[in-house]
Amino acid sequence: MFNKVLVANRGEIALRVMRACRDLGVRTVAIYSDADKHAGHVRFADEAYNVGPARAADSYLDHEAVIEAGRKAGADAVHPGYGFLAENAEFARKVEMSELTWIGPSADAMERLGEKTKARSLMQEADVPVVPGTTEPVESAAEVKEIAAEYGYPVAIKAEGGGGGRGLKVVRSEDEVESQLETAQREGEAYFDNASVYVEKYLEAPRHVEVQILADEHGNVRHLGERDCSLQRRHQKVIEEAPSPALDADLRERIGEAARRGVSEADYTNAGTVEFLVEDGEFYFMEVNTRIQVEHTVTEEVTGIDVVKWQLRVAAGEELDFSQDDVEIDGHAIEYRINAENAADEFAPATGTLETYDPPGGIGVRVDDAVRQGDEIGGDYDSMIAKLIVAAGDRTECLARSERALSEFEIEGLATIVPFHRLMLTDEAFRAGEHSTKYLDEELDRTRIDRAVEKWGSADASAGSNDGDGNDGGDGDMTEREFTVEVNGKRFEVNLEERGAPPVPDLDAVGNGGSTAGRGGGATRSRPDEATGEDA
C-alpha cells in the first residue's frame, strides 16, 4: 500500500478520498488554489500545497503544478477524484511517466473509452447493445440526413468528447440539420477541444441507469449493481438511487453482465461506471465514466463495499477479494445533491456565508461534505456543497427517512436546493419511480418549485456577532491566534499565545483573514496525529 497520496481535487470528494486513505493508514496531501486556502479539504489533509490562483485553469487544471506538488510532498500516488483532471488521459499519462502512481484506469483505457465513437465500437464488439447510429464521426449535413432517413427523426448529434449535455443537439426535422450540426461541432471544440460529432437515434423518454464497476490488474471484473440517475435537470443529475426502481430481476442481471463484458473488452482496471439508457424494457450503452462518480455513495450503502478504498488497493496492485456472487444488494439508498443554487431562479448558483450549517444525523443518514458553519461559499467552482445519502431497508422506508433527514438539514445564509428535494418527496411520479430523464425539464410544473422554495427556503442570515478571532473578545488576559503561512508553496499553521496583552488584531499571514481551524484539524502539520478525523 502507498505511504502518501496526493488528492488532485477539492471539496467533498477530496475529503472522501482522504478518509479512505486514513482508513488504510495512508497519509494525505491536499492541493489548493488561492480561493481555497481555508477550505475543508485543506484543513483535513496531513499536508497542503498551493498550486495557483483561483481560476481552475491556473491551479487545479495545471498539470505541472499538480505533479510538482506531489514531488515536493514525496507522495507515492495521485488520486484525481471526479471532475477537473479525473478523465484527462494526457494528465494520467504524465503521472504514469513520473515516479507517481495514477489511481485510476490507464491513460490508454481512458482514451479508448473517452471518445464516444471508439467506445461504441468497442461495446459492439463486446456484444453490448448501443443506441442505433454511427460508430464513426460524421462531417456533413448530408450524412446526418442519411442517418435520419434510416432511423427516423428525431436524431441526436453528439460531441465525441461530450458529457453533461454539452455538445448534444436534437434534430427533429430535416431543416434543423445544418444549424444543429454546426452548433454541436462548435460546442465540442469549445468545451472538449474536439469538434468531431456522431449521430444516433434520439430516445424520447429514457431512464438513465448506470452500473458501478471494479476491475483489478489480475483480470477480475466485478459489477456492484446499478444506480438510477434519471432525475436530471438539463442533463445534470440531481437525485440518484440504488437499486433502480425501473428494472426487474432479468433486466438487472442483463445490464450488469453487459457492463462487465464491456470493460473487460476495454482492458480496463480500477473503478468505473458504464452508463445506459433504458426504454421500453431495453437498454442501450451510452458512455463509460473512467473515474469515481459523485453518486458512488449509494452503491456503497447497498453493497457495503468501499469503492474509493478499492480504488487505492487496486492501484497498489492488490486483487479483488470477493467474487461476483459475493456482491449482494441490501436495501435501498438515495443521494440528494445539496447544491448552492436557487431552484426558484432556474437553479442559478448562489454564494454567501454558511451562517447556519447543521446537517442531519441518525440511523441511515450519511452526509459527505467539506464545509462547516461560517465558511464562505464562492462562485469559483461547482455549486455542490454537500451530499445527503439516506439508506433504509426498502425504497418506501428510504423515502420516509429522506423526509425526516431533509427537514432536519438546516442551512442559512445562502440559497440551496433543499426545498426542491423536499418537493420531490411529495411528487407522485418520483415517489412511484416513474420519472424519466425528461421529467424535470418538460413535465414538472415550475410553479410547484416556486411554492416549495417559499415554503421551505430560508432568508439570508444576518452576520453573526462573533468577533471572528476564535474567542469571545475577552478581557485581554490571554489571546490565542492561529496564523496560516506558506513556505515554498507548502502550507503551515502556527498558533501564537500572548498573555497580559490586548487581543491580537485580525491578521492573517497569507491573507483573506479569519480562523483556519476546523473540525478536521489543521491542514498541514508536522504531527499528523493531531488530526481528529471528524467531519470537516
TrEMBL record:
<dbReference type="Pfam" id="PF02786">
    <property type="entry name" value="CPSase_L_D2"/>
</dbReference>
<keyword id="KW-0460">Magnesium</keyword>
<protein>
    <submittedName>
        <fullName>Acetyl/propionyl/methylcrotonyl-CoA carboxylase subunit alpha</fullName>
    </submittedName>
</protein>
<keyword id="KW-0092">Biotin</keyword>
<keyword id="KW-0547">Nucleotide-binding</keyword>
<feature type="compositionally biased region" description="Basic and acidic residues">
    <location>
        <begin position="478"/>
        <end position="500"/>
    </location>
</feature>
<dbReference type="InterPro" id="IPR005479">
    <property type="entry name" value="CPAse_ATP-bd"/>
</dbReference>
<dbReference type="InterPro" id="IPR005481">
    <property type="entry name" value="BC-like_N"/>
</dbReference>
<dbReference type="InterPro" id="IPR050856">
    <property type="entry name" value="Biotin_carboxylase_complex"/>
</dbReference>
<keyword id="KW-0067">ATP-binding</keyword>
<feature type="region of interest" description="Disordered">
    <location>
        <begin position="457"/>
        <end position="536"/>
    </location>
</feature>
<feature type="compositionally biased region" description="Gly residues">
    <location>
        <begin position="511"/>
        <end position="523"/>
    </location>
</feature>
<dbReference type="Pfam" id="PF00289">
    <property type="entry name" value="Biotin_carb_N"/>
</dbReference>
<dbReference type="InterPro" id="IPR005482">
    <property type="entry name" value="Biotin_COase_C"/>
</dbReference>
<dbReference type="InterPro" id="IPR011054">
    <property type="entry name" value="Rudment_hybrid_motif"/>
</dbReference>
<dbReference type="InterPro" id="IPR011761">
    <property type="entry name" value="ATP-grasp"/>
</dbReference>
<dbReference type="InterPro" id="IPR011764">
    <property type="entry name" value="Biotin_carboxylation_dom"/>
</dbReference>
<dbReference type="GO" id="GO:0005524">
    <property type="term" value="F:ATP binding"/>
</dbReference>
<dbReference type="InterPro" id="IPR016185">
    <property type="entry name" value="PreATP-grasp_dom_sf"/>
</dbReference>
<dbReference type="Pfam" id="PF02785">
    <property type="entry name" value="Biotin_carb_C"/>
</dbReference>
<feature type="domain" description="Biotin carboxylation">
    <location>
        <begin position="1"/>
        <end position="445"/>
    </location>
</feature>
<feature type="compositionally biased region" description="Low complexity">
    <location>
        <begin position="458"/>
        <end position="468"/>
    </location>
</feature>
<feature type="domain" description="ATP-grasp">
    <location>
        <begin position="120"/>
        <end position="316"/>
    </location>
</feature>
<keyword id="KW-0436">Ligase</keyword>
<dbReference type="GO" id="GO:0016874">
    <property type="term" value="F:ligase activity"/>
</dbReference>
<dbReference type="InterPro" id="IPR013815">
    <property type="entry name" value="ATP_grasp_subdomain_1"/>
</dbReference>
